[in-house]
UniProtKB/TrEMBL annotation, chains A, B:
Belongs to the acyl-CoA dehydrogenase family. The lineage of its organism: Bacteria, Pseudomonadati, Pseudomonadota, Gammaproteobacteria, Pseudomonadales. Residues 469-595 form the Acetyl-CoA dehydrogenase-like C-terminal domain. It is an enzyme of class 1 (oxidoreductase). InterPro entries: Acyl-CoA_dh-like_C_dom (IPR025878), Acyl-CoA_Oxase/DH_mid-dom (IPR006091), Acyl-CoA_Oxase/DH_mid-dom_sf (IPR046373), AcylCo_DH-like_C (IPR036250), AcylCo_DH/oxidase_C (IPR009075), AcylCoA_DH/ox_N (IPR013786), AcylCoA_DH/ox_N_sf (IPR037069), AcylCoA_DH/oxidase_NM_dom_sf (IPR009100). Residues 38-156 form the Acyl-CoA dehydrogenase/oxidase N-terminal domain. This is 3-methylmercaptopropionyl-CoA dehydrogenase. It comes from Marinobacter nitratireducens. It catalyses: 3-(methylsulfanyl)propanoyl-CoA + oxidized [electron-transfer flavoprotein] + H(+) = 3-(methylsulfanyl)acryloyl-CoA + reduced [electron-transfer flavoprotein].
Length: 600, 600
């Protein structure tokens, strides 16, 4: 693990043994692929991550992009790394062959980006946003928009952004004010201010394509009156050549605690005559259009959290193995040699906690990626519908659980390093700062809780929630056939039962009409539900590990034993608190809701 | 609360109603004081904190001290603020009148420093370390050392440091190698390297007095062979005038994630002929001498964590009241005005969590401060002995509980601010970075757990542990007389009972000789025990609040009602997880202990 980005055995185990990504090769779309071609793409991404992205991760933190003389300047290493990435074709990893893509399964395509995130989340931001914006155009845009804008994006010639947030309306998108005025030629002129626009300006690409939410003049108020527009930094002529500069101005850069390599910008649209934009999809359907891609974007956030946690874990593990400090409990001889940190129980506990968070988080994200493919390419309508529903249900968890617990992993990685971990001479403090963004962007932790409990659990009459609970129950039943897993399976069952009871109690309050009360602790529900799902994935990992030990897998016996112990740790140290939270949720407590402003 | 450092009502409530600091005025030492003089000192500290310290807190983070041409340079505001502080006499707040001190009770003296920490922890560092080093000389040093070194420190002419850590031995002090060679004149020459020495060099004072742990030539190995030395940066002549530069060289500055205003240095002692040092106290008794002051230093760390959490909470509270965002659950009218953030249940939950952490943490630190005075000035030997034992027991909790939970409060303060909280345009991200040091320095979280469970709980045959548990039980009994507190009291009793059971089970394993197993989860024990003690302090606050509502107190009805709800929140949202952890501890689980290196 010289690169300290991922444990290659774990990646292979998760993709090929746990999630059986090779099964997706049965879909026509992936018929040309084999495990070798999938692995080749991952190896390539890991090589680029380790050789081109990781080496300047600290540099772009120390020397963040600057706004000087109307231009954004940044370290040259960023452009060089992105140029190498463009060359690999990985920016179109999931796209069609005919568009210059690789047609890789979602789990592999997302993992390729994930490896870049673990290596250097700042530089990766430019590529990640471009991939997301191109995907959006490919799903929502016209054939002509796809050719003129998305294809150069997939090739890395143009980069992209997502322009949602405005200064006066963060999470409350329905309140955005940017307006779009129709022009006789079918285009629009946009006027408004956007904030927190990542990668909003730079000189890393020939052009920047902004995907902008705005309102038409006759739009209804709120979220039903939002449309999606494509606004290029430089206009693009019919032949693909670049025309004049559009009326999009960089108003300033925002300086962040972490994630500093990716510029966060304030953009003014229409300071002069209005920024030329083109409607994408139907009028007043912009939020739905944007959210069509949101599941994948949110898996991306979750996976980014995981990978920051994962690299921190591997750094802490190496440090704990190499650094000698103290003696075993009971060794009173001050002249005996100091032992490696990893020999101390508390260090091992902190490493094991990191392991269950990051490997559990990775399993969760890849579960989502597998559903992305099943949703698109599953053999029957029912398969696809079921996958789509489960993906919708799991998305808030995939986005949120890692952004909380893999951030905690980053804190533990600092703690393992002691005083050194707090210094900027070691990388773990940067991972912690970088990862702190993830519970905020792409829908805050609180928003995800409302989404899960307020919408997803109940959608389709609770069908997908029940399906997930059934799958968990099935796994528990299977795990009980393995003697070693009976205790973990029982603990998971107790936890799932407690959450089901809590869900029932909350649903009864909701049905009674007191929605505010029902949703008052939605964030706690989100965290607890996430633990149940990750506990389920740990039990599945443990079963696969036992199968592997019995001869069916490709990893070492130590690796499999580590998975078993990690499952046991999660069941014993993490799951019991969920029962406690579930009891609180079941009581539909309103202590916080009832607290008045003036009582603080 | 324009200063956003502390809620003045809460400070008054905690000092005068909860902890009844006026009772210490019965001690001869404090006979000259009255509530007015105590409050005058606090008001002065708050004024200096708000006017001189807070305004440049961000500046010293952005422009941290630099090492240039052999000198440390830093922002001039630091020296200016410290000069004002010196003028106030607050650096000798707890010292004798005859030494130029104010003879303030410990709770008030420590609180004065705490206010500076909340305002600007970086600049405060120089003063805080000086006060600690001066205290150490006053307790351990000779009359002549007190006059020549400590008095100028208390006046602010000299500053001080604590030099413990060496590059190869962080937490493992017994392995330190710095050596002290006796000289014919009774002085010593020191040779060795120290790291992470806060305030180790600067030009803020006429001189710097280093308190250095080192070994005599004939010293036994390990912690029993450590002596304490006083090593001035510049030698001090008999008449108090400064002599030549000592052989102490700044080898470099360490760059930290936060707490940047306080330099962290590497110091080389004896690059040439050896650094001239003077033995403080008895030979080979240095660690005991240093630890004599450690209780107060550790209260200082805990209080620093609290105050960083507290200022973050007040910033988040103000933001939540002013920022309008979104609508109440159920309001489907997109044209209704947006409401202040504080009207959302999840925001209130995050504010309430911050409130219970920071106000609970403050109550805990002040409990320790009160014991400091009872230990020194209590009327009988028994009182003093009991106070000393309870203080020893509580110290690891006072140091650790705030450094974990008030850091969590800082994370919640960021979350309340949303994307803005992640930017360096708002102060909350700095509080979060600054506070992340506290679980590391002055004994890591893990070390504190070992101290609590391995030593403190069992000391004197468990006498002080049992005394604390009895006090908690007594409070529970008293609280049950208030109808409103019955539920909270019952929850605390259940929690305390679970911890008592866990303690018993662990003690049995320890008695059987398997100490490593008994201590394997000492950190979890620390966290859980801390919650029991803070739960006790919340119940005591709630009783005082009910008394206040009945007319005996000086605060507003809203304030008291807020305390009651906060107590309920702590009992309902925080205590139940302790029962879960206690169950795990009772099982004396060894999952992490048993994990082998190669299984990670």
């Amino acid at each position: 693990m010289a690169q300290k980005i991922i444990n290659p055995q774990d990646l292979a185990f998760q993709l090929y043994e746990l999630h059986e990504v090779e099964k997706t090769l049965a879909y026509d779309r992936y018929a040309d692929h084999s495990r070798d071609t999938l692995q080749a793409a991952l190896d390539l991404a890991l090589k680029v991550a380790a050789e081109e992205f990781a080496p300047h991760a600290r540099l772009v933190d120390e020397e963040e992009p600057r706004f000087e003389n109307g231009r954004v300047t940044m370290r040259p290493e960023v452009g060089k790394a992105l140029d190498v990435l463009k060359e690999t074709g990985l920016m179109a990893a999931s796209q069609d062959y005919e568009r210059g893509g690789m047609q890789l399964p979602a789990a592999v395509a997302q993992m390729c980006v994930g490896l870049l995130k673990g290596a250097n989340v700042g530089t990766q931001g430019y590529a990640g946003l471009t991939i997301a914006a191109a995907n959006l155009i490919m799903v929502q845009g016209s054939e002509e928009q796809q050719k003129r804008y998305a294809e150069p994006m997939m090739a890395g010639r143009f980069f992209g952004t997502m322009c949602l947030t405005e200064p006066h309306s963060g999470s409350s998108l329905g309140d955005l004010r940017t307006r779009a005025e129709p022009q006789p030629d079918g285009s629009y002129r946009l006027f408004g201010n956007k904030i927190f626009i990542s990668a909003g300006d730079h000189e890393l690409s020939e052009n920047i394509i902004h995907m902008v939410l705005a309102r038409l003049p006759d739009a209804p108020p709120g979220v039903r009156g939002i449309s999606l527009f494509l606004v290029p930094k430089k206009l693009v002529n019919e032949d693909g050549s670049l025309g004049e500069r559009n009326d999009v101005a960089l108003a300033g850069l925002i300086h962040k605690m972490g994630y500093r390599g990716t510029t966060s910008t304030m953009l003014n649209f229409g300071e002069k005559d209005g920024a030329v934009g083109y409607l994408v999809g139907e009028p007043n359907n912009g939020l739905a259009a944007m959210f069509h891609m949101m599941n994948e974007a949110r898996i991306g956030v979750g996976l980014g959290s995981v990978m920051l946690g994962y690299t921190g874990y591997l750094h802490a593990l190496e440090y704990a193995r190499e650094r000698r400090q103290g003696r075993p409990v009971g060794d009173k001889n001050p002249e005996s040699p100091q032992v490696p940190l990893i020999q101390h129980a508390d260090i091992r506990r902190m490493l094991l906690a990191q392991k269950v968070y990051v490997e559990g988080g990775l399993a969760l994200c890849l579960e989502g990626s597998m559903l992305v493919d099943q949703k698109k390419h599953g053999p029957t309508d029912t398969d696809r519908e079921l996958a789509a529903g489960l993906l919708d249900l799991l998305t808030p968890l995939i986005k949120s659980w890692p952004s909380r617990y893999c951030l905690e992993a980053n804190s533990l990685a600092i703690q393992v390093h002691g005083g050194y971990g707090y210094t900027r001479e070691y990388p773990v403090e940067q991972f912690y700062r970088d990862n702190r963004l993830n519970p905020i962007h792409e829908g805050t932790h609180g928003i995800q809780g409302m989404d899960l409990l307020g919408r997803k659990v109940a959608m389709a009459g609770g069908r997908f929630y029940l399906e997930l609970m059934n799958r968990i129950e099935t796994t528990i039943g299977e795990a009980r056939h393995y003697e070693r897993l009976v205790d973990s399976a029982n603990r998971l069952q107790q936890t799932a039962k407690a959450m089901a009871d809590a869900t029932g109690a909350i649903n009864r309050i909701k049905a009674s009409g007191d929605v505010e009360k029902a949703l008052a602790n939605a964030t706690l529900y989100l965290d607890a539900f996430g633990h149940v799902v990750v506990g389920w994935l740990w039990l599945r990992q443990a079963m696969k590990a036992l199968d592997g030990l019995a001869g069916s897998g490709g990893q070492t016996a130590e690796f499999y034993e580590g998975k078993l112990r990690a499952c046991e740790f999660f069941a014993r140290y993490e799951l019991p608190s969920v029962v406690t939270t579930a009891d609180l949720l079941k009581s539909v407590d309103t202590t916080a809701l009832d607290m008045a402003d003036e009582q603080f």
